[in-house]
Amino acid sequence: MNIGYGRRLFLYLLALFLLFAGGVAWFQRAGERAHKTRALEERLDAHASIVDALLARHPDDPAALDSLLTLFPPETRLTIIDNAGEVLRDNALPPGAHPGNHADRPEIIAARQTGRGSDIRRSSSNDTEYLYHALRVPAGYTRVALPYDPGVRRLLEPDNIFLYYVAALFLIVLALAGYVAHRFGNAVRRLRDFTHAVDSDTGAAPPPSPRSRDELGEVVAKIDANYRRLKESERTIALEREKLLQHVQGSGEGVCFFSADGPVEFSNDLFIRYLNTIVDEANGDPSLLLADRAFAGVAAFLAARREPRFATRVNKQGKSFDVRVNIFDDNSFEIIINDVTRQEKTRLLKQEMTGNITHELRTPVTAIRGCLETVLARDLEPGKERHFIRSAYNQVLALSELIQDMSLITRIEDAPHSFQLEPVNLPALLRDLRDDLEIALREKRATMSWNMPGDLRVTGNRNLVYSIFRNLADNAIRYAGNDVTIHVTLSREDAGFYHFSFADTGVGIPDERHLNRLFERFYRINEGRTRETGGSGLGLSIVKNAVAFHKGSIIVKNRAGGGLEFLFSLPRAIPGRGTTENPV
């Protein structure tokens, strides 16, 4: 049977108060009984002293003793005993009776030792229970006894007034104990309800009642308030954790969290994808990462843990991955994998481009320096001086063209939003281009034509669209040879794009291994031949970037009848839409 805390407390207090009240009552009654017994014994002692005094004056006068006994209570038993314990006289026994030696009686033994002695017992001579009191006298012992009857018992019994007082006080204290136990029980019950609510996660404990505004009520209220704040903090932390996990899940890095002893706590999908690319046997279990030889450095770092951070690079499957490890204060850690293949290629490309730019600038700068040093150091004829100055001017033009082309490529890549988009009439643009190239076309005896509707419009930046066709045309004029025909054709169209063919009838590229590299910056098929014909080496790279800016694509191939053909696409113009900024 499960007894509540309040009831148990009440029972404990009841037992405690019963023990206390019973002890007080017993002690009081025992003390009062002892006090009354001593008072009666003192009376008996006085009677014995009187008898002793009378016998001292009239030792041989029995009548005097009998007259004295008439003054004592009628039931008084008087016994005269000598030093040897023999009974000399006993008024309760008939003359000539022999009660035996009384030296071993308890009251006689006590009187022999202390001068006085008392005992309550049943007499063996007349089968009556007496209260005996013996007094030691020079001639022996004087013993006075009273029958231990109900009257004597009542005389010796303590009064019940104190007992009633103790009982009344006990009931009052018991009622107070019950009240206190009830209040304690209520407080404990509220705490129990609170713990049950916590275990079941249904909310906080019930608020304390208005009658419980004491320390226990305050404790319950404080615990309840703290628990509510704790639950609110848990909800906030759970929400923030969910936000963090969503952020990590959508992060551009592969992230995996490990506990201090190794088990995986969380990993995003990108981490699993990168891990399957790197490890020899892909199974999607992040915990096997440290067993793979590609992560031997990470495993060695985690085994030592001398520093809080570690970084390394892993190259696998033609890709480069940066791997970082961060150890937290509780010895848990995270491993971050980031695919840096593109950044590495960009770095190498920029490094290569820097070398190419340096290489491209060295020749014209050296030529300009040589021409100017010749003009300044020598006294030349006007014709020769003009020749060197013109040579330097041509090199400056080449440098200017290189700078403009590099600036255009950089702007396309780094600031595409700076280009305005608008409907561009392509036949009109091609007419302007042919007019601009008239002299160059005439020198190479080349012709340029196109086949497309006269009102065909594309959506793009006019300058970039112009640079596409200008660089393709310049490439054909410089490298296709003499007497070539350049023809632009609208090959097909779909819902979003026009598809064009830009072809020439020149020499083409016999070694087709070069075709895939034509759009690389500063790539030259024949270095010497290219230098003779001029150009920055960036024209076709500009073409590819400008087409990509317009969300199109471009490829190059050798024509069956000779020459090169560039196939590319540009977005169709949407009727009614005016000039807009590039959304990229």
Question: TL;DR of this structure?
Answer:
It contains 15 helices and 18 strands. The protein has helices at 5-57, 62-69, 106-114, 150-156, 161-200, 215-249, 269-278, 296-304, 341-377, 382-414, 426-436, 438-443, 462-479, 527-533, 539-549, and strands at residues 77-82, 87-90, 116-122, 129-137, 140-147, 254-258, 264-267, 309-316, 319-327, 333-339, 420-425, 447-451, 457-460, 485-493, 497-504, 554-558, 564-571, 580-581.
Protein topology:
Elements: H1 5-57, H2 62-69, E1 77-82, E2 87-90, H3 106-114, E3 116-122, E4 129-137, E5 140-147, H4 150-156, H5 161-200, H6 215-249, E6 254-258, E7 264-267, H7 269-278, H8 296-304, E8 309-316, E9 319-327, E10 333-339, H9 341-377, H10 382-414, E11 420-425, H11 426-436, H12 438-443, E12 447-451, E13 457-460, H13 462-479, E14 485-493, E15 497-504, H14 527-533, H15 539-549, E16 554-558, E17 564-571, E18 580-581
Parallel strand pairs: 12-14
Antiparallel strand pairs: 1-2, 1-5, 3-4, 4-5, 6-7, 6-10, 8-9, 9-10, 11-13, 11-18, 14-15, 15-17, 16-17
Helix pairs in contact: 1-5, 5-6, 9-10, 10-15, 13-15
Report on this model:
This protein is of the alpha+beta class. The protein has five domains: 5-156, PAS domain (Beta-Lactamase, 2-Layer Sandwich), CATH 3.30.450; 161-243, no CATH class; 250-339, Beta-Lactamase, CATH 3.30.450; 357-398; 415-581, Histidine kinase-like ATPase, C-terminal domain (Heat Shock Protein 90), CATH 3.30.565. It contains 15 helices and 18 strands. It has a five-stranded antiparallel beta sheet. A five-stranded antiparallel beta sheet has the order 7-6-10-9-8, with helices on both faces. A hairpin with a 3-residue loop joins strand 14 and strand 15 (497-504). The longest helix has 53 residues, at 5-57. Residues 528-533 and 579-584 have low confidence and may be disordered.
